[in-house]
Design a protein that fits this description.
This protein is of the alpha/beta class. The chain folds into two domains: 2-119, Rossmann fold; 129-219, Arc Repressor Mutant, subunit A (Orthogonal Bundle). It has helices at residues 10-22, 33-42, 59-69, 84-93, 105-118, 156-167, 175-183, 190-203, and strands spanning 2-6, 26-30, 47-51, 74-79, 97-100, 129-131, 136-139, 144-147, 150-153, 173-174, 209-212, 216-219.
């Protein structure tokens, strides 16, 4: 995997680079937010390990840049500041995990490998059909939900939000991630995001979108039987 590490402590950074290099990963180590932003804009990475408190632009600024254009990569925020407000802010901005210093590199590696196996976009059938539930089929090409034979057309925003939830099915998608992925630079309030989610709920057969109050939404997995 290609990893970008933002860490202003040269010694700690060296230890992290050596650890993951021995695992067979390629690691780009940046000592400042400015250097990290330059690297982010010049090459794609699979994993981002971002220290929050670094010179120039902090880790949150880098996270914002990543999520504006790259919803797929795995991002870990790292900090010695254990303030719950910072942790909540990181998840609202779209981090996959938050690591508190001091940390165990083996634990980070376990978390990375697990997330790598579970956060890839869910496949959509070649004909564009996605099974949302036993009663509900989503035609991604026609932007239509078929619930028990009743065909329901989606607006563009409803379609984009549902597609994002499908790609991350079973995982938390924050309101901020939805806003950045669907509306990008356009102005939209969190009330507007919640309004689209509310309309989607009414169009789906059953309560398939779960709300984690204050964080975001999860499209519930299909039952095994």
């Amino acid at each position: 995997m290609n990893i970008l590490l933002l860490e202003d402590d040269p010694l700690l950074g060296k230890l992290v680079v050596e650890f993951f290099t021995e695992k067979g990963d390629a690691v780009e180590h940046c000592l400042s937010g400015k250097a990290a932003l330059k690297a982010i804009g010049s090459a794609p990475y699979d994993i981002y390990l971002l220290d929050v408190n670094v010179p120039d632009f902090n880790g949150f600024a880098c996270l914002e840049t990543i999520r504006r254009d790259q919803p797929e990569p795995i991002v870990f925020m790292i900090s010695g500041d254990h303030d719950i407000k910072n942790i909540a802010h990181a998840f609202e901005m779209g981090t996959n995990d938050f690591i508190k210093k001091p940390f165990d590199l083996e634990e980070i590696d376990i978390r990375i490998r697990w997330l790598s196996r579970h956060t890839h976009p869910r496949p959509i059938a070649p004909d564009g059909q996605v099974r949302l539930s036993r009663e509900c089929l989503f035609d991604t090409t026609a932007r239509i939900i078929d619930c028990n034979g009743k065909r329901i057309k989606l607006t563009k925003n409803e379609y984009d939000v549902l597609l994002l939830l499908i790609q991350r099915r079973g995982e938390l998608v924050t309101q901020e991630e939805i806003r950045r992925s669907v509306w990008k630079e356009k102005e939209i309030t969190m009330i507007g995001v919640r309004s689209v989610i509310s309309r989607l709920r009414k169009k789906l057969c059953g309560d398939w979108i779960e709300t984690l109050k204050g964080f975001g939404y999860i499209l519930k997995p299909l039952p095994l039987s």
